[in-house]
Write a structure and sequence with these properties.
Layout: E1 8-13, H1 16-19, H2 38-41, H3 44-49, H4 51-67, H5 72-79, E2 85-90, H6 96-100, E3 105-107, E4 110-117, E5 124-126, H7 127-130, E6 149-153, H8 163-171, E7 175-179, E8 200-204, E9 217-220, H9 224-236
Parallel strand pairs: 1-2, 1-7, 2-3, 7-8, 8-9
Antiparallel strand pairs: 4-5, 4-6
Helix pairs in contact: 5-9
This protein binds ligand BV8.
């Protein structure tokens, strides 16, 4: 909900903001997709073909995400809430934004710490409720309807239920910040197009992605852990 008077800062983040915390990105040479094909581990077909492989792929990432810490970029975005209504739209499935103290985080592509029924997407549980060690989800762990529990993740080819909400945030932004995403995956990448042309946009990434021509766009070609705190200091200054 919009805080009266406070300006809306909307932030779209991707895997790059968690890179310096030690979580691999997707499309780097040594990235997550380097060992697996998208369709084998992040699609309904892959799930149907080899659910054990998919469960293992997410179990390993869930375990890793619980072992690492938020970095200066996550903390700086949380600090921004002192003066602004900060709405984070993340493509990430880790909970580093929440652990850094951000209070409004929308996970477009789901969350590692959440699992759901394969039969009813609204039957959702926290991994800690169902797992014996807090990170592992196993074949044979069923939902109350008797279907296999699956990661509460949006796979390729699955619709993105929270996109409408994210679109409205982009349309109401007074400032739009993009951190650490290659802007390859849609509809998430398309959010930039819903930001009014009069609104200032900023992209922070050591390799600024190729973009359509946008009005009022600034770029900081540097890692999140230095670029985000620098920008936040300016905005709070
Ligand atoms: C949909 C799951 C329709 C969670 C993810 C052809 C066939 C089939 C589909 C399509 C197709 N063409 C297009 C599509 C649509 C498809 C899509 O976009 N595909 C892409 C590959 C072309 N999209 C979908 O399928 C979506 N659904 O369209 O549904 C529909 C409609 C109605 C009814 C039914 C269906 C669903 C998309 C969601 C897929 N799930 N992941 C998980 O496993 O994690 S996407 C996956 O990629 C992650 O979620 C991730 O967030 C996302 C984007 O990646 P990035 O975050 O950008 O990471 P990346 O590695 O790419 O980039 C890292 C960036 O960080 C780089 O720029 C790098 O320079 C930077 N960086 C590195 N270090 C740092 C840094 N930045 C700052 N600091 C640093 N230190």
């Amino acid at each position: 909900m919009k805080n009266t008077g406070m300006k809306n800062i909307v932030v779209l983040t991707g895997a790059g903001i968690s890179a310096e915390s030690g979580i691999q990105t997707f499309r780097a040479s040594d990235g997550l997709w380097e060992n697996h094909r998208l369709e084998d581990v992040a699609s309904p077909l892959g799930w149907k073909k080899d659910p054990a492989l998919v469960l293992e792929f997410y179990n390993q990432r869930r375990k890793k995400a619980q072992e690492v810490q938020p970095n200066a970029a996550h903390f700086a975005l949380a600090q921004l809430e002192e003066k602004f209504n900060v709405q984070i739209i993340t493509q990430n499935v880790d909970d580093l934004h929440e652990r850094a103290g951000s209070s409004q985080v929308l996970h477009l592509h789901g969350e590692l710490n959440s699992v759901r029924s394969s039969a009813d997407e609204n039957l959702v549980f926290n991994i800690s409720e169902v797992s014996k060690n807090g990170w592992e989800l196993e074949l044979g762990q069923l939902c109350p309807l008797g279907s296999q529990l699956r990661p509460d993740i949006v796979w390729f080819g699955e619709r993105v239920p929270k996109f409408e909400q994210a679109k409205i945030m982009a349309q109401n932004a007074d400032f739009f910040l993009v951190v650490g995403t290659s802007l390859v995956v849609y509809p998430a990448a398309g959010l930039l197009e819903y930001v009014p042309s009069s609104v200032s946009k900023c992209i922070i990434d050591p390799n600024i992605p190729v973009l359509p021509a946008l009005y009022n766009l600034h770029t900081l070609e540097e890692p999140a852990s230095s670029g985000v705190p620098r920008l936040v200091a300016k905005l709070l200054g």
